[in-house]
Amino acid sequence: MTTRILPAVGDPDAARSVSTLLSQLPDAEPAQPVTDSTQLVDTLARLAAASLDELPEVVLVHERIGPVPALELVREVALRFPAVGVVLITADASPVLFSAAMDSGARGLVTLPLGYEELASRVQAAAQWSLGVRRHLGGGAERITGPGGTVVTVSGAKGGVGATVTAVHLALAARAAGRSVALVDMDLQSGDIASYLDVQFRRSVADLASIADISPRVLQDAVYVHETGLSLLLAPAEGERGEEVTDRAARQVVSALRGRHEVVVLDCGSRLDSANAAAIEMADTALLVTTPDVVAVRAAKRTVRMWERLQVRKAEETVTLVNRHHRSTEIQPPLVQKITGTRIAGVAVPANFKELAAVVDAGRLHELDAKSTVKQALWSLAGELGLVQAAGQPGKELARAGDRGSLGLRRRTGGR
């Protein structure tokens, strides 16, 4: 039987060496190497969305892959695509690294410089394991058909532009469409989701930071189920505890939530740290919120450029939402698009804070009137981003929720 192999190797010389050896393996079908972690995950997600059978049996991860470190990438692939056997290529053959690789979900380890016999043995073992898992999944009720839920991050170009209100209503729109939704406050030092939704809960994302393997039971204990049906994972009440949440912890949290919810919305605030940078890098859609004024648009441009420098997100893979828009404003969405180089959302949220004032002050943002133009715009944005594509008839789901936000919903036309 043919074994499909997808190498993830950033260095061109190493990639050629790996491809040459793989081409000599019997019954092997090596794919063109992917050059970074983002490309690897995107490729696997695209294949998994088509069918479980489209996934390669074996993925080879080189130790110098980036921007995500190799072991973290192994863990992410193992969590999101459990029917794929992952083999780590490394120069370090120490027992410590071997143990760490196995803990991350690798099915084998090949040492550098590469040797034919060792590579063939590890690839064959990983392929056999993968085929066994697929046979098991094929006969079970919980057959894996894709990479997990859709992840959307919402970031503010600067403080006070409306990122949290946007994140909350995107989550509410998806929930009204009948989808299982997790809303995460990744603004770790000054998150306000608990205040907006009148929630008091002792657990937070910081409580998951030190856990090596987040089980469903552990995740359930940290999540607060709101009256709307949203699963809330809050920011810590003590802002200094936000430093406990590393990029590795953030990746684990996002992967765990993605595996149990159809939609995961993360409010990343306006401050970039390692945790929300990891979340933005993992997201299917990264939404950047700005207002149509010079200061905010300049901040949006700085944010986009910083994401590019840090290899977090490319400008063309970012969606910018213009909040508090008015037709008489000098800065209009097309100009924001030209300045930032991002894709502009088809919806602009109108400047009508009076609609929000009462529910914000009461901590009842979820009770915003269905006739609110702000709510209608944000729920239309949820449709544009593909968050309300419920099974069956999503329009009726939203209508039953008593919301005019279901009108004019559009499918996502771009983004990651």
UniProtKB/TrEMBL annotation:
One of its GO terms (cellular component) is cytosol. It comes from the Bacteria. Residues 4-127 form the Response regulatory domain. GO terms for biological process: negative regulation of cell division; phosphorelay signal transduction system. Gene3D superfamilies: 3.40.50.2300, P-loop containing nucleotide triphosphate hydrolases. One of its GO terms (molecular function) is ATP binding. SUPFAM superfamilies: CheY-like, P-loop containing nucleoside triphosphate hydrolases. PANTHER family: SEPTUM SITE-DETERMINING PROTEIN MIND HOMOLOG, CHLOROPLASTIC, SEPTUM SITE-DETERMINING PROTEIN MIND HOMOLOG, CHLOROPLASTIC-RELATED. This is CpaE family protein.
